[in-house]
Design brief:
Layout lengths: L1 H11 L3 H8 L7 H13 L14 E7 L6 H15 L2 E7 L7 H10 L4 E5 L11 H8 L4 E4 L10 E4 L1 H14 L5 E5 L5 H18 L8 E3 L4 H13 L4 E4 L2 H13 L9 E6 L12 E4 L2 H16 L9 E3 L2 E3 L16
Parallel strand pairs: 1-2, 1-3, 3-4, 4-5, 5-11, 6-7, 6-8, 8-9, 9-10
Antiparallel strand pairs: 10-12
Length: 342
């Protein structure tokens, strides 16, 4: 027991006396400290004592588009942790090509009588998809929250990263490094985040470089490593010395493409990602990227859903979170070139 108390106290960052009080169900411990001890039990592989096992307040659906992009598991983990702290059991629904669809998952969640659903980058982010599915859920009185993708007519809280700020930060960084031929590798424009980034990119090229037509500097592809590589080949062929990508996976593809042509990153081509996915700082070179505030967004989404479940409607004005540019090793000064601005 002494060893366990010491290990738990060190992991949780509290005293052994606090750990003892939590394990024995005694009062006088803050909710934050109690949660830290419970987390330490889970991390270290200890089984929670019977008295610490609370009955779940209900089920909440968490629908994400995939798990292959590391940002989605990170966001799901943040939301799952916060839901658990509030006594709810999250049901993770991850899609994959040819597998269970979002609508099919929703039917399963309804069969399980969930208290609400969190949608992350779902069909609400696709401007070509019908929003009637969400109207139907709201018509049943089911609370929902939409993350990263605005569906104007849906009566639900909406949370997103500010894509305009993300692009502005990226372009300003590259212009400050002397780049004048800057390209954008982005996913299909029918997706709200992609459309927003594309519009912001055109505005920033015009404002910072005097480029009136951004179209030659944008390559539309898929949000994958392969998509990023394909876009990079075309942008490099057209003389771009820097590439801003719509995701970290695309950025890794862009780096792969540059190297396959014998080019160095960042000496010959600079690459900027988006997301700051887990472990992305350990790539070769470490990736300069725009960080989505995953923890803050997850907390806001869960808090909004909890308010809706408790009968306290929240604002329908989209809540935009300010991203942060994380400068690492994949960007540097523009290579010497006789060419000027595009």
């Amino acid at each position: 027991m002494r060893t366990r108390l010491t290990d738990l106290a060190e992991q949780a960052g509290v005293s052994t006396a606090t750990v003892s009080r939590v394990l024995n169900g005694k009062p006088g411990v803050s909710s934050q400290a109690r949660q830290a001890v419970l987390a330490a039990l889970d991390v270290l592989g200890y089984e929670r004592p019977e008295k610490l096992r609370t009955r779940p307040a209900g089920l909440v659906g968490l629908v994400v588009p995939e798990l292959s992009n590391p940002v989605f598991p990170a966001m799901a983990q943040a939301m799952e942790s916060m839901l658990t702290q509030r006594g709810f059991t999250p049901l993770l629904c991850a899609q994959q090509p040819g597998g269970t669809t979002e609508d099919q998952y929703v039917e399963i969640l309804l069969d399980h009588d969930v208290a609400g659903i969190l949608f992350v980058s779902g069909l609400h982010a696709d401007t070509q998809a019908s929003v009637e599915r969400y109207h139907a859920l709201r018509g049943r009185g089911l609370p929902i929250v939409l993350v990263n993708g605005r569906a104007e007519a849906v009566d639900a809280p909406s949370i997103a990263t500010d894509d305009s700020v993300a692009i502005e930060l990226s372009v300003r960084h590259l212009v400050a490094l002397g780049h004048r031929r800057i390209g954008l590798a982005i996913g299909p424009e029918r997706f709200v985040p992609a459309a927003r980034k594309r519009r912001a990119f055109a505005e920033q090229l015009r404002a910072q470089l005097g480029v009136e037509d951004a179209a030659p500097h944008v390559n539309t592809t898929l949000f994958t490593v392969e998509g990023g590589a394909t876009a990079a080949h075309e942008l490099i062929d057209s003389g771009h010395t820097a590439i801003i990508c719509g995701s970290d996976l695309m950025a890794l593809g862009a780096i792969r493409a540059a190297r396959s042509r014998g080019l160095r990153v960042p000496e010959d081509v600079s690459v900027v990602g988006f997301d700051d996915s887990p472990l992305i700082g350990f790539t070769d070179p470490p990736l300069t990227t725009v960080r989505q505030p995953v923890q803050a967004m997850g907390q806001a989404a869960v808090s909004a859903l909890m308010a809706e479940i408790n009968g306290t409607p929240t604002s329908r004005t989209e809540l935009l979170f300010h991203p942060e540019l994380i400068v690492r090793g994949s960007t540097s000064s523009a290579p010497a070139s006789p060419g000027g601005p595009a």
